[in-house]
Design goal:
Elements: E1 9-12, E2 15-25, E3 29-36, E4 41-49, H1 52-67, E5 78-83, E6 89-96, H2 103-113, H3 119-137, E7 144-145, E8 154-156, E9 162-164, E10 171-172, E11 175-178, H4 180-193, H5 201-204, E12 209-212, H6 215-230, H7 236-240, H8 245-250, H9 264-273, H10 284-301
Amino acid sequence: MGCTCTKERITVGGRRFYIIKRLGEGGFSVVDQVEDGAGDKFALKRIQCHGAEDERQAKKEAEYHCQFKHKNLIGLEEWGSVKGKEGLTEVLLVLPLFKRGTLQDELDKMKANGSHMPEDRIWRIFRGICEGIKALHSAKPKPLAHRDMKPGNVMLSEDDAPVIMDFGSMGEARIEVKGRSEACALQDLAAEKCSMLFRAPELFHVDSHCIVDEKVDIWSLGCVLFNMAFLHSPFEPIYARGDSIHLAVLSRSFKFPENSRYSQGLLDAISGMLVVEALERPHIDWVLNKANEGQLNMENRI
């Protein structure tokens, strides 16, 4: 381990960490690479809270991390809070560091060099993502929904296993909307925290009296599987033309590329998830069965 005497230090959960470098910045947080006194490296997510509600949400995110011990859900090394600049509270999450980056990073590299992901690898990684989502949807005492599933929120471990991260949009799966003001509030929250290219139809236009549940993640998984195969979201071409994503999603306006190299089973799985009416959309067990079938079919081909 190199000398840490000149590096910025921060204490989280009673442990001292040294700031190495900035890894990324988002709308609500920044992520730094840190190391402890033994030289072990981690990612430090620093969530700046601009009020009591922000602080409550950030601490809830930490609690969600602590709730699960699952190979496909990112763990939490330590967490705590400090008073930051101008008296604002910073909630600090020390997370595992994944040197390979995200699934989106992997897909971007493939797009840049003109390659693609083999179908057996697609099914293997997608199956792991589904296992993580099933753990959320089966959570006790109440099921949870991630609400921002996308390749950029899936890390890849050294053995190519997917690990779902960013629990900032997560919450109880079942939301009962009573009235227009609640509908507008949920719609605004989704616009702020749920990535547009992977957002379910019911979050683009929230009805005044409805129930929004974990089926939002199923739609997003359909977009993720499409993205893994074709290196872009199903609605990205529409966005690139400057047309309305909202209308495209509500009308299910997407197309599979012609002469696809992938199996009909993969295309059928995507179509089965991208169902506009949430009540008609399948549950995670159906998606997981499709992933298992796809993986088994690939193994039988070898």
